[in-house]
């Protein structure tokens, strides 16, 4: 620009920069909005019971929705793989909720085994569920529903200290319990 | 539904440990503060803060700190941090923050101990031991002892799942709305700045630009150089208005080209006289005398108005 000697030199340049920044921000935010809309449509579809695949770059909320879909259909191993891919650093609350739901699904499956009298698979499932509840609580110590259901699981299969625990680098939950109070289910009270 | 992540240490409970044994070399006292020692439930986080007072120069050895992880089958250590409180009253202060989490599922209220810890302090030559005492608390059950079946008898009552939630789209929406508003405004500003449609008429107003330049020049310095620069700016505007170079003798040509300037004929001629004095006579003072800066700006304003009238 042919401006006078004392004029602020970069008015055109500043304007151009602002324009470029606003345009870039608009493009980015539109991409973001479109992605959110697509993700929410995916989450809605999974909630409605459609078996939709999620990509490698899916956001935690989508992974959680997919995992929940799998849990409700007793595909616990696939659900676990999905839950483990939710990063605790990026989405601690989503991961805690997903671990909690996974533990609930395991516990419900265990209760079905118990009803049919299959103690061993039930015990194994309950132990895994307890560990998942603990991991959810480690992410969010104020997660009351997880405390409640962990308490339920603990009464089904109690934790006990290892006997003669020498070099206990082992996780306590993987230790063999001395005793379980499985038959303590008060079914058909007198 | 949720409580704060960690129960904040209540200063109500401070176990002051007279540490005569540890005081032997370096460590003077260890004070442990924790949250309320009762009403704790399964999964609660417990933040213990140990204040160690030691001789100046002593530092807590990192290697002697416990590592986060399981402590016992029902207790996890979530995090460990040491804060150096500096030297006050001739003693070094150190605060050790230990965040534990209990996973004990009691059937009735039950006292539990977080075990004591021994930390090593070192000042380069000597080392001393600080014993953080055990911390006892009462943990309570969440449910009745015989709270087995739910109402319908289908196994124990479980709290329901957390349903998957949709992605929170507010950030994207806000950014889109913000930039979507800013972009048209900036585009309009740019069009105005460059004289694009609908501000095209603006680009055909050389006197407006000249007036702005002259005003800036005269206001910033106001000396002879600034005056001449202002004259030059108007010369360029006259050239642009006439579509050719305009000198003192060309005023009639200019008035033919821009009839709207006719009423200003006398003033325009005065401008060219002053200009001749300033540039050819090299006598800026006389020029200023003939057409003072205020009069120059006044002329500029009237020329701008006339130019606007002409479209």
- Average per-residue pLDDT of chain B, rounded, comes to 85
The second-level CATH architecture of the largest domain in chain B is: Sandwich
CATH topology assignment of the largest domain in chain B: Immunoglobulin-like
Number of helical segments with 4 or more residues of chain B: 8
Give your account of this protein's structure.
The complex is a heterodimer of chains A (190) and B (311). In chain A, 62% of the residues lie in helices and 0% in strands. Chain A has one domain: Serine Threonine Protein Phosphatase 5, Tetratricopeptide repeat (Alpha Horseshoe). Chain A has 190 residues and is mostly helical. The N terminus and C terminus of chain A are likely disordered. Chain B folds into two domains: 134 residues, Immunoglobulin-like (Sandwich), CATH 2.60.40; 111 residues. In chain B, β6 and β7 form a beta hairpin.
Main features:
heterodimer; A: 190 residues; mainly alpha; Serine Threonine Protein Phosphatase 5, Tetratricopeptide repeat; disordered N terminus; disordered C terminus; B: 311 residues; alpha+beta; seven-stranded mixed beta sheet; 12 strands; 35% helix
């Amino acid at each position: 620009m042919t401006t006078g000697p004392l004029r602020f030199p970069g008015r055109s340049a500043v304007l151009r920069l602002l324009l470029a920044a606003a345009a870039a921000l608009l493009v980015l935010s539109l991409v973001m909005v479109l992605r959110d809309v697509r993700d929410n449509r995916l989450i809605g579809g999974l909630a409605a019971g459609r078996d939709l695949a999620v990509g490698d770059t899916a956001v935690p909320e989508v992974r959680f929705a997919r995992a929940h879909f799998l849990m409700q259909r007793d595909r616990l191993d696939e659900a676990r793989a999905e839950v483990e891919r939710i990063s605790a650093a990026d989405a601690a609350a989503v991961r805690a909720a997903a671990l909690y739901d996974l533990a609930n699904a395991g516990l419900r499956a265990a209760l079905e085994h118990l009803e049919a009298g299959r103690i061993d698979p039930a015990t194994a499932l309950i132990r895994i569920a307890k560990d998942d509840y603990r991991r959810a609580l480690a992410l969010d110590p104020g997660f009351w529903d997880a405390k409640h259901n962990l308490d339920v699981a603990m009464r089904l299969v109690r934790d006990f200290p290892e006997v003669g625990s020498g070099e206990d680098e082992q996780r306590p939950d993987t230790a063999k319990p001395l005793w379980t109070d499985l038959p303590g289910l008060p079914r058909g009270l007198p | 539904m949720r409580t704060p992540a960690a129960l904040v240490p209540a200063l109500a409970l401070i176990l002051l440990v007279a540490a005569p044994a540890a005081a032997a070399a370096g460590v003077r006292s260890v004070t442990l503060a924790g949250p309320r020692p009762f009403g704790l439930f399964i999964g609660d986080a417990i933040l213990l803060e140990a204040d160690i007072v030691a001789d100046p120069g002593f530092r807590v050895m990192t290697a002697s700190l416990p590592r986060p992880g399981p402590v016992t089958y029902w207790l996890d250590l979530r995090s460990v941090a040491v804060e150096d409180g500096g030297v006050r009253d001739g003693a070094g202060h150190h605060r050790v923050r230990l965040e534990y989490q209990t996973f004990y599922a009691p059937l009735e209220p039950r006292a539990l101990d977080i075990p004591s810890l021994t930390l090593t302090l070192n000042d380069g030559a000597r080392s001393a031991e600080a014993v953080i005492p055990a911390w006892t608390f009462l943990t309570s059950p969440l449910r009745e002892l015989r709270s087995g079946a739910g109402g319908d008898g289908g196994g124990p009552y479980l709290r329901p799942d957390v349903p998957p939630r949709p992605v929170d789209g507010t950030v994207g929406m806000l950014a889109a709305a913000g930039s979507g508003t800013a972009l048209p405004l900036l585009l309009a500003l740019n069009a105005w700045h460059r004289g694009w449609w609908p501000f095209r008429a603006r680009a055909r107003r050389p006197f407006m630009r000249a007036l702005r330049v002259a005003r800036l020049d005269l206001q910033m310095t106001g000396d002879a150089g600034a005056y001449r620069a202002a004259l030059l700016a108007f010369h360029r505007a006259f050239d642009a208005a006439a579509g050719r170079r305009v000198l003192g003798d060309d005023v009639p040509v200019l008035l033919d080209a821009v009839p709207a300037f006719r009423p200003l004929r006398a003033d325009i001629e005065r401008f060219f006289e002053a200009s001749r004095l300033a540039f050819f006579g090299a006598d800026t003072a006389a020029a200023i005398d003939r057409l003072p800066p205020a009069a120059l700006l006044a002329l500029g304003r009237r020329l701008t108005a006339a130019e606007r009238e002409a479209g």
